[in-house]
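=== Structure Prediction Worksheet ===
Name of assembly: unnamed complex
Input type: mixed (protein and possibly other molecules)
Chain count: three
Listed entries:
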Amino acid sequence: MTDAFTRAVEAVLFAADAPLSIEAIRAHAGEGDVRAALAEIAAHHQGRGIELVRRGDRWHFQTAADLAHLLRRDREEPRKLSRAGVETLAIIAYHEPVTRAEIEAIRGVQISKGTLDVLMEAGWVRPAGRREVPGRPLTYATTPEFLVHFNLASRRDLPGIDDLRAAGLLDPVDLAIERVEVAKDDEDA
Amino acid sequence: MTDAFTRAVEAVLFAADAPLSIEAIRAHAGEGDVRAALAEIAAHHQGRGIELVRRGDRWHFQTAADLAHLLRRDREEPRKLSRAGVETLAIIAYHEPVTRAEIEAIRGVQISKGTLDVLMEAGWVRPAGRREVPGRPLTYATTPEFLVHFNLASRRDLPGIDDLRAAGLLDPVDLAIERVEVAKDDEDA
Amino acid sequence: MTADADTLTIDIDGWEGPLDLLLALARTQKVDLRELSILKLVEQYLAFVDQAQALKLEVAADYLVMAAWLAYLKSALLLPRDPEQEPDPEELALRLQLRLERLSAMREAGARLMARDRLGRDIFVRVAPEGLRTIRKAAWQADLYDLIAAYGRVNARTRPVMHIVANRPVMTLETALERLGDMLGLAPDWRMLQAFLPPGAEGGYRRSALASSFVAALELARLGRAELRQEAPFAPLYLRPPA
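=== Predicted Assembly ===
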């Protein structure tokens, strides 16, 4: 028999209609060691059909991802994004926070009006404050729902993000050029 | 590690939008011993926050019934009693048991329906029987919680008229302004 | 996209801008982007745009701008190296290669993102969870002072009110008549009304004495016991006994 607090946390998570933060869990389950309870619940569901997963700083239950082949309801993507939409979403996710001009610099083409709207309407992208440079451009970042939708525990789980960062491919071109030149100078010296 | 079929049944039940029959489960999870899987799943969740329950010949997951109270959280928000509320409470405290008509006569203004409701919701006032006069009007009196909240040993601890006068609380302030404010207050209540 | 080594099927609508077209052309070289021959890529691009124009296809302005820039880059790369030349054509070529790498990396990342197990397709949450609700309840507040002050207020409001007029110093009309009558006889000359007020009278008492003396002056004039003179409205009022 599980202790009463762990049961309470499990029930609250199960009943919730969105991923819950530690504070939200505590608000309903009462005082207790929420982290310990989460660890116990995660262990109890390990390797089963339902899993407790972490999405950013929130937690929720979902079906195990490896059962997708059994559960997949149709081959259609839940939300069919245009190529521009997919690229823009990837650029925001891997570079956030990022301005519209920076997105356009990477893609080499202007973003059409609807592209960011579609991503924001899907709930995956949000405005993330202004950058303190001349013109104070708005920046964009991903949302907690983005993590939930793409089955990511955090942005660190974005496919290949470590390799891309190590290869300098997430740095602006200017920065990369500087680095190449410094390296050349070192060789010459 | 649970077997693949049991995991699939568990996931199917979790993601279903209604209780599922054995046939419906089989249609999603594929061939296998559905009953054995259900038995294993029920045992695994026994005594926890999530329960597998049978409704007729259909199965579904639900939040443990005895934890339903956690899903509804009451949050107390401090709210100041309105002027009409405080005055009505004061009249009841000084004159109890007292009818609504008597309260209005003493206040010199009608009391809106909500005022007595608020005082009863706060737990300070209770109906105290009917007065044996024509129309048998309901009378009101204070409760033990009233004494506790206002830190009074008994109603006799309330200062008398002479005490109030000595404290300057009976000074006829600008009565014209006073009446206008009372009228406004009652409209708000 | 069908590609022999260097040629592409012309379909200008299919490209997301010149950089996208360059990336597709670079892919036909079948090498790592870091090994890319920029010169060869420039040739491919220029050939593509030429062919499109030869087929009288509309070629968008930004593709032509890129073509012009690439033609410049090509000549700079082919000419003998001038160490003073700014910008350095090698650096321009490197920039182009880095931009292609970045676009390629993001295109791949987007594809991998889309291929992940996705909510509603591969992974699922409960369709109709019970949901969590927060019921707000009012915790009513009032303290003992509020209570007794309110009772005092009610009492004060409904208690019968008695009006007491304060005893203020005034000069009655009778007194004024008597004073003016006596004082007029003392001298035959015109004197201002103010001269008849008691010496040292101030404030409310002085105003009262003035008002009463004025009414007394009118009364004395009516009885023929005084004469009045005034030059203009609001000018000083003069009195004297009848001549």
